[in-house]
Amino acid sequence: MVPNIVCGSRTYGLLAYLYGPGRRDEHVDPHLIASWDGYAPDPGRDPAASLKQLQTALDMRVDQRGKRRALKKHVWHCSLRTSPEDRALSTEEWAEAARRVVAAAGIAPDGDPDGCRWVAVRHAEDHVHIAATIVRGDLLKADIENDFRRAQAECRKIEKEWGLRQLNPGDGTAAKEPTNAEKHKAARLGQPDTSRQLLRDAVRQALAGASDEGEFFARLETAGVLVNRKVGPSGDVLGYSVAAVGERDAAGKPVFFGGYKLGPDLTLPRIRQRLAVPLGERADEERQPQGIDRTPGRRSAPARARLAASTAIDEAIDVLDGEDDAAAAGIITDTGEVLDALAGTAMPAQKTQLLAAARAYERASRSHIRAASAETRSVRSAARQILAGGYTTNKAPDATAAATLLAALLLLVIASSRWHAERGHRQQAAAARATAEHLRAAYRQAATRPMAALRQRGRQLPRPVRERQEQAVARVVPGEAGRRLLAEPEFDALAAVLAEAEAAGHDPEALLEQARSWRELGTADSVSAVLTWRVRRLADLPVPARSQPPTRAAGPARAEAGSPPATATATATSTTTSDAPRRR
Asked: Which site among 29, 68, 157, 217 is 20 to 30 Å from 302 CA-CA?
């Protein structure tokens, strides 16, 4: 059961909407089901009652308070809606839910004779509206501080008691949702999203990897967003608001949204905290991350940036397995910047899924645990390099690098879901799981062509070379597990990679041992696919191409000692891939 609360100043206007036909004639049989005393006039079913009579009854105490003590917004409006899969509630159940919510929110506490006046109106099967005025019988303003949080907590109790779908409890860190008016306006204008959502995307993408406040505002203006800075008497910028070009209100003025209306972490003070870099860290941020490919002629700028970012993400995963919650929260927060950077530079085929992933992870990136900044420099630097690298293409090097980074991000996102779940952050954990689904879809789009090329090369291997790789796999993965691996369709790709690594002077068995010990394989959709990408990364093989593979056998040489650090992730290995240089 989802509560939605707004406040206003026109009692009659709200009642006219609740008892009216709705914006699309969706209101059916509007009628009153409960009220503060059980005797409020019902214009819906009582021919002798009118909207004016009901408005006068609700506003009685507002009028008694007088104009000198008038409240700017004295109307409290709360809608309660069940989930689509919930059973239909009876009129009596909706009335009981309304009474419990107004009591919990502070409108009419149980046993308080001076509680506010309220009515519950029903005009649909799946929801009910509560209209109240917030002046009490003693003419004081009702204590509705934290009313949404209290109403939400009561709804969680109702769900459990009545056998409804139990939603995740909120913790006050969620961004404000677009209003119904904004949604209807977007639909009327043919926009895929509301202006609030589009502006939130623009602000987050402008913030991703920004070095300072000036660069952040410059990026916003370059993106075509109207920016209004709030400047104090001292000349300092105290805040900001943004508006979409062409978005106007009834008076013809731009519709501006302040940072807080877009997200709790998008206010100027919070942005400044994220951009603040301690002395001595700037040089480290601008330095190339460890493991970046320094052969510009071999890979494009977008590919190099993504491979470097995958290394930074891999190293960041270890922080989530540690005991420093502040550092982990910082990693989770700044991982959102990498997703925002990817969404802003992705190919159209992947952009939809990456934008959905960035939007979902936006909820997972905030909690009440204060994030540390020093440990997240490499992750923010990765976002900056992705933006500097520019837009990716559909060429094989870019596709392989994109798949590498998406797989690393998938591991990190699943690890963040587990981290949130362990700390009782149910909404954040659910958001991270939703992000993982979008990343899986984006990974499949990026990895299809490189994997197809590798499978083709594997099927073209000379028989002796193929048999040698099969024997290596059988020795490293004995028994039934090895036989299942050899029977997988993706084993063609693994055989091709092992043959290529052997020709480059590596020992296939040593690489397989390292690849198996890197991360768990129990939940992988295809073990051979996972091992394929791990071996490529360990051996630092070039991008797969549709060319005849080498047929000669190279003398085996043991790979360098030192296996990559293990990272515990349950389901991410089903899509793990990499083409970045091996760690040293």
From this structure: 217
pTM above 0.85, yes or no: no
Please count the CA atoms within 13 angstroms of the CA of 494 that sit on its side-chain side: 29
Q: How far is it, in rounded angstroms, from Cα 502 to Cα 117?
A: 80
Report residue 298: phi and psi, to 5°.
-90, -35
Q: Give the C-alpha distances (Å, rounded to integers) separating 247 from 123, 242, 252, 288.
A: 32, 11, 9, 41
The whole-angstrom separation of Cα 34 and Cα 86 is: 22
10-41 tens-digit pLDDT: 999 999 999 999 877 789 999 999 999 999 99
Instruction: Categorise residue 235: left if φ over 0, alpha if ψ from -120 to 50, beta otherwise.
Output: left
Q: Are 135 and 62 a contacting pair, CB within 8 Å?
A: yes
pLDDT tens for 211-245 read: 889 999 999 999 889 999 999 898 889 999 999 98
Produce one character per residue of 104-131: b if its CB has 16 or more CB atoms within 10 Å, e if not: bbbbbbeeeeebbbbbbbbbeeebbbbb
Q: Give 562's pLDDT tier (boundaries 50, 70, 90).
A: very low
Amino acid sitting at position 473: V
Q: How far apart are CA 98 and CA 5, in angstroms?
A: 13
Q: In what order do the strands lie in the sheet with 75-81?
A: 2-8, 75-81, 127-133, 118-122, 31-35
| b/e map 145-161, b = 16+ CB within 10 Å | eebbbbbbebbbebbee
Token pair listed for 216: 């952040």
The string of pLDDT tens digits covering residues 133-179 is: 999 999 999 999 989 889 999 999 999 999 998 887 766 677 777 87
For residue 254, the cross-strand partners are 248
Q: How many CB atoms lie within 10 A of CB 372?
A: 17
Angle at 22 between CA 19 and CA 28, to 5 degrees: 65
Give the distance, in angstroms, between the CA of residue 203 and the centroid of all CA atoms in the same chain.
Answer: 15
